């Protein structure tokens, strides 16, 4: 991912339990990142 394409970035630490066996972050976890940060 190139930072130059995005105007705003926010680093988020992803926990092991947030990711499924294919390496995708669960949609409900993405929402929890938005609400807690």
UniProtKB/TrEMBL annotation:
Any coiled-coil ranges, and where?
A: none
From the Swiss-Prot or TrEMBL record, give the protein name. Answer: Acyl-ACP thioesterase-like C-terminal domain-containing protein
SUPFAM superfamilies per the UniProt record, alphabetical = Thioesterase/thiol ester dehydrase-isomerase (SSF54637)
- Give the residue range of the signal peptide: none
Ranges for the Acyl-ACP thioesterase-like C-terminal domain? Answer: 11-33
* Species name: termite gut metagenome
